[in-house]
Amino acid sequence: MDLAEALDKAVAALKAPLEPTDREQGWTDDLRREIQEEISVNRSALRRHGHGLAKHLRPRLDEWMAHEGVQPGRLHDVVMNAQTHITAPHTH
Question: Is the pTM of this model over 0.90?
Fold first, then answer.
């Protein structure tokens, strides 16, 4: 999975309504929307300015989720995958 795919997957997962297990893992509708928006902004910036911009983006979605008490699970995994792809070195 490349950077664009990872970000698209995360945005799509976060646009969908929360499942009961997501709520049990600490997700709220507001948190879901806020993190989806953050990933969308990064995705838009990368599309406009190219993958070279990724080295300047330092998303701290992991810290944000930890602060909010989000537990590992489906959405946590997709968000962490997006963060990993944003912060990974890019040669495009």
Answer: no
